[in-house]
Amino acid sequence: MRINIHAGHNPDGMTACGAVGLIRESTEARTVKDRVVAQLTAMGHTVHDCTCNNGTSQQDVLKRIVAACNSHAVDLDVSIHFNAAASPVPDGQTTGTEVLVYSNASKAVPWAQQIVDSVAALGYRNRGVKERPGLYVLKHTKAPALLVECCFVDDPDDVAIYNIDRMATAIVAGITGQAAETTADAARLASMSQAEFVEYIGHLAAADMQTSGILASVTAAQSILESGYGKSELALQALNLGGMKAELSGNTWASAWDGRIYIKDTAEQREDGSYYTITAAFRAYQSVAAYLADHSAYLAGARSGDSLRYAGVVGCRDYRRAFQILKDGDYATSKDYVSKLCAVVERWNLTRFDGAASPEPDGSLWANIAGLSYTWADASSFGQLLAQNGMQTVLRRVNILE
């Protein structure tokens, strides 16, 4: 998809500075715009930043934006703004998010509806899609155009729930049409108790185990610990239950991740036990199922040089050993990562989701299959695999059965 993105107004504080309240429109619009551009670019879309930062007047700013937009052949033009109430005193009712279009017949309307619904799902009042034929940019851009009014800068309720990353992610979700599934999964996580989340993720992990060969108790424990029972910021805003960063092992494994990211601060632990904070880009997923698929693909296929980073985790039937494999492969920096995961398994009896998992065959045959290095020379070992894991599972592991 080809997209023009631009933030409204001018940041110099004098010329076309936009709405000013508890937060400042020109500043916030640019910050949100930057995050939207970064996310869309990471997803593989062609994005042009047409923001004007040096106009001499309101009209000059608008003309420069339109000229920049019309210099590119794109599918959609998106202008990012913030609103303000007409009254100088917030009334508690002039709140929410809305998206403006030139006319209700504009080709931008379906995108506009997706965006306003996605942003409203963050907790804002949904003011809908509105027709504004008098707006200069909407009228003069060649491509279908829309203007996002993220929220009201002078309303305390709007500002209280405003978060730059969440706003940007919601806008991107609306542009790409992924809002519905993502919002539904996030709402499901938000409503669950700890026990309900354990059952939910345990059953999903058990289904994943049938094709990935990774113990359900391992997948479930990581999701529980890393996401705080589905309530972490990363879980609710990006459906990332395992702290999966955007760049992992050089992205050397086959992945269905679509490239969306979520940027946040995260704590890392040094060898001496002290902690430090970094700002990192994490993977954002359109569904919990997409996260699980990518997480398992990562554990099975990520490489460190010429070797599998987590060699032995596929087919491992001892969750303690599997956790040590993950720690040794630097999945997490926490020094007590293994003991924490084991405690989660034991507290919730997560091994019940492992079903008929049997002891690992001699010679780590599953690991050989995962690395595509097994030659089937040992017929008795192949028979052992069939007996312990079933024909369908074995064939899936060697990509004979899809």
What does this structure look like?
With 402 residues, the protein is an alpha/beta fold. It has 3 domains: 2-177, 3-Layer(aba) Sandwich (Aminopeptidase), CATH 3.40.630; 185-356, Lysozyme, CATH 1.10.530.10; 361-402, no CATH class. 44% of the residues lie in helices and 15% in strands. It contains 16 helices and 10 strands. The strands form 3 sheets. A 6-stranded mixed sheet has the order 2-1-3-6-4-5. Strands 7-8 form a two-stranded antiparallel ribbon. The chain has a two-stranded antiparallel ribbon with strand order 9-10. Helix 1 (25-42) crosses helix 6, helix 3 (109-120) packs antiparallel against helix 6 (164-176) and helix 8 (194-212) packs across helix 9 (216-227). The longest helix has 19 residues, at 194-212. The protein is elongated and about 65 Å long. The model is unreliable at 356-402 (pLDDT under 50).
